[in-house]
Amino acid sequence: MNQGWVYKEQVGKAGEGQTLLDYYVRRYSHSSEDEWRSRILSHQVLLNEQPAQPDTKLERGQRLAYHRPPWQEPSVPLEFEVIYEDSDLLAVTKPSGLPVMPGAGFLEHTLLGQLKKHYPSETPVPVHRLGRGTSGLVLLGRSPLAKSELTRQMRDRKIHKVYRALAAGTDCLGQPVPEQFTIKTPIGKVPHPTLGYIYGAVAEDDPSASFAHSECQVVRRDGSATVLNVTILTGRPHQIRIHLAAAGYPLLGDPLYAIGGVPKLTVHPETGTLPVPGDCGYQLHAWRLGFCHPRTRQPITLEAPPPNPLKAN
Fold this sequence. Notes:
The protein is an alpha+beta fold. The chain has helices spanning 20-27, 33-41, 111-118, 144-155, 239-246; strands spanning 5-10, 45-47, 50-51, 63-68, 81-85, 89-94, 125-126, 135-141, 160-168, 180-183, 187-192, 196-201, 214-222, 225-232, 284-292, 299-303.
């Protein structure tokens, strides 16, 4: 069991005039109306630090806090390896299955949760994220200088990121993966029945469309599979999974993204649930990071050896 968590937020324009119960039911559909009513009546949900009734009308600017009791988190691999460390920054490799940040039922069983145990006084802060099913390098800031400077480099696309991916060997017409190719399919929000939305390939005129750029090169061909190096020049959510699927070469074992880069919305026959971004099963590894040290200004390149299915030979 973990220690529980308090989810804090402030009522915005969209929530103004709603009842407290309606606010949580509409905003967080992972729980039923009866479940939210029970939480409010048992004072797990506070309004301006005070208990409130389910039919209380909300005003803009009011403070909400849902005190979630301790819960048993899913079992995941918790180990990580330090690749580089100094007083300004930290670089580690995480295993597939370990989330970087809290969310979707994970709190302490995350990379950040484990870092808090190893660095309790000043926990390093991730400057980028990897999907739960993605393994490999994560860069973290320790000093205020590093946190701001590395974030700036990430925003300005000055951090060189290369991934190793295991994708389909041919497209739906049986054409092999080209030796080198570029993908610039826009990525935006796609409706999802339970999460509200997730990210996927969208048209250029879609209101949520964001520019995305990936450069791909074949490393090894192995029958129906292809090992690729993928350099991402932008950092959109699930970019490699979406881009390779949009190009016709989805990651093998990806439970969510099919050819076209559109999320699958088919209920799993065993679990009875729809696939979500945190589901694992694919092979994707953050292999190389290149950046400028925030204090010395010297270039640094870090590598994390990929697991067996993604090796060059």
